[in-house]
């Protein structure tokens, strides 16, 4: 409770007591004393009006202080958001750069694969065992292993699955949340 509230309560009680006293004095015919009590009541009522104005001013000031505190809180939120936004912009730029790198690598993938296919050795097969043995001996330690698809059947689907999952699910979730929020 504020000082004005306490004083208003005290003044109200004093006025009530003085009104009782005034009624008693008026009933007893003590008009001169009743006029003095009446003057005290008027002074207390003026004082009460001043305290009401003070109480209203205190409420207004308290409301203003709450508004300033709310603004300070909002400013803190804005600063935290700015920092988070800078981090997000950095990550988005990183994802964009990675997407460009993946796009460039995917563009080079088919020509590299075609070059690999075109350069594959013919692996001569001779019907004569002696000829085949001479061929194999001539290759010696440089005999290249048979093409095992370089594990492409395992490796490339994993890459495309990761890209599809992150692109469809991860980015879609972010975009939906961003559309709803901002």
Please tell me about this protein's structure.
The chain is mainly α. The chain has two domains: 98 residues; 63 residues. It is 85% helix and 0% strand. The chain has four helices and no strands. Helix 1 packs antiparallel against helix 2. It is rod-shaped, with a radius of gyration of 47 Å.
Give a brief description.
With 182 residues, the chain is mostly helical. 85% of the residues lie in helices and 0% in strands.
Count of folded domains: 2
How do the SSEs run, as a string of H and E? Answer: HHHH
**Based on CA inertia axes, which overall geometry fits?**
rod-shaped
The number of strands is: 0
Which descriptors apply to this entry?
182 residues; mainly alpha
Write the layout of secondary structure elements.
Elements: H1 3-28, H2 31-118, H3 129-139, H4 152-181
